[in-house]
């Protein structure tokens, strides 16, 4: 990848745009399966009910240009979007806390199709340490800093109990982790150069339950 | 629950508030473990770096009042928040698509601590149909409407391939599902009285990768 391209691709893209781009990607993949070779933002717009002008604006962040009256070439658009979203470039991660959710994520091989490979996990439970789950080794938490030397990792997946969420985060950052994917319902604090992505399934459940109750009562 | 309380709890609470409330809950749980009996919004504010006035505003949706100079009683605040967020009231759900992510969610018993119980799953793969996973039965997808009669379910968890995401959603809605928890990267369309909660792990990955690259280049 040329460094100009690298620069273009590493612009700080607005989060709403980054969240919509995977919708366009999955939609365009479907159109490809249906035999389409070109797609316009108007076509995507009809399928997923988002303004065509919004779609064109979102796609302007991506290094692709459409042709007048023909639109984007489907194969190119898929390749460019996957690359732009980071799904083609494998990112290695450690997972912290092999409980119910942590174990589930270790078993979810689907993440690797989207650029995330969990290469090792950490826990303190004697019955887990030294074993593997879906082929992924589980080490004792106090081996973390040593393992940072062995593996080329900069992402940490946080699935520990809330009581130790901050402490484990601090230790991750000390060890050189640059991005924390936080699945706990705890709001962790990090230095400003560290990326935090919060994915609280519980917060999403709360929103869904509230909307459901609201619809039932109204 | 009195109907007045029911009404109050089923107000359409702003989504950002609903997403922040679980942070307060986990924080207050920690304070309880440390032996605290009362907590003020200023205290929570210091811990999680959100404006105290925002916290007080968010908590005003919840049926609790603090006492001047003392704050909220910790035990009551936890109980009221858990109830308000729907975590104490078990919601039954069906899961559609026992692939890698679907299987992982069936194994994640943690969801039940937050009010979601997946009572059955559906797939078409002969090697899955008729088996159980973590004690949860897997039925053939064409048995869904019949099973809607047997189980008291109104939530569907969607973890199918994108090619059939819309079709399975349509069938869910036809069968009487009122809320769809969509884990696919596909933007599904539903009638306006149906709740959709999108939780795309892949979109979150895309945001994290972009921010990480941005920090590395800058």
UniProtKB/TrEMBL annotation, chains A, B:
UniProt-annotated binding residues for NAD(+): 97-102
GO terms, molecular function: DNA binding; DNA-binding transcription factor activity
InterPro entries linked to this entry: CoA-bd, NAD(P)-bd_dom_sf, Rex_DNA-bd_C_dom, Tscrpt_rep_Rex, WH-like_DNA-bd_sf, WH_DNA-bd_sf
Keywords per UniProt: Cytoplasm, DNA-binding, NAD, Repressor, Transcription, Transcription regulation
Membrane-spanning parts: none
One Pfam family linked to the record: Put_DNA-bind_N
Any single biological process term in GO: negative regulation of DNA-templated transcription
Entry GO terms, CC: cytoplasm
Superkingdom per UniProt: Bacteria
Span of domain CoA-binding: 86-187
Binding region for DNA: 23-62
Protein localization: Cytoplasm
Protein family (similarity comment): Belongs to the transcriptional regulatory Rex family.
Function: Modulates transcription in response to changes in cellular NADH/NAD(+) redox state.
Known partners and oligomeric status: Homodimer.
Record HAMAP family: Rex
Name of this protein: Redox-sensing transcriptional repressor Rex
Organism: Bacteroides muris (ex Fokt et al. 2023)
């Amino acid at each position: 990848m040329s460094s100009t391209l690298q620069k273009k691709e590493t612009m700080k893209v607005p989060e709403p745009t980054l969240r919509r781009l995977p919708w366009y990607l999955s939609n365009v993949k479907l159109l490809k399966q249906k035999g389409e070779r070109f797609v316009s933002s108007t076509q995507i717009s009809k399928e997923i009910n988002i303004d065509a002008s919004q779609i064109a604006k979102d796609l302007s962040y991506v290094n692709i240009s459409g042709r007048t009256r023909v639109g984007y070439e489907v194969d190119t658009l898929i390749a460019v979007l996957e690359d732009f979203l980071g799904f083609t470039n494998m990112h290695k991660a450690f997972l912290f806390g092999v409980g119910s959710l942590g174990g589930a994520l270790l078993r979810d091989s689907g993440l690797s199709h989207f650029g995330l490979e969990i290469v090792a996990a950490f826990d303190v439970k004697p019955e887990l340490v030294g074993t593997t789950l879906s082929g992924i080794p589980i080490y004792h938490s106090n081996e973390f800093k040593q393992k940072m030397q062995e593996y080329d990792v900069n992402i940490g997946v946080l699935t520990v109990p809330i009581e130790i969420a901050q402490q484990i985060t601090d230790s991750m950052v000390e060890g050189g982790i640059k991005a924390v994917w936080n699945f706990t319902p705890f709001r962790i604090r990090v230095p400003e150069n560290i990326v935090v992505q919060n994915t609280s399934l519980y917060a999403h459940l709360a929103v869904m339950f509230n909307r459901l109750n609201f619809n039932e009562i109204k």
